[in-house]
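Exercise 7.
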Amino acid sequence: MALVRCQYHGKPKGRSRLYVRSVNPVGWPDTAAICGRANCEKPGLIWLNDDEDHSYKQGQRIFRFNNASMKVRAE
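Solution. The predicted structure, written as tokens, is:
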């Protein structure tokens, strides 16, 4: 599942999933995708795991998170 982190917080570490690359959400840095870290309100990048990275390379641009609350579109 995708994850959003700002440039300051960078690549997610210590997670059960291995995130391999980040991609820009549509309109980045003027985007509605905000870093998921507590107390951070900076624009975030979309971090993808290996399967999502493969899908991105195949043209997929909409990714979901670990709940059904929302999805995000990458450039």
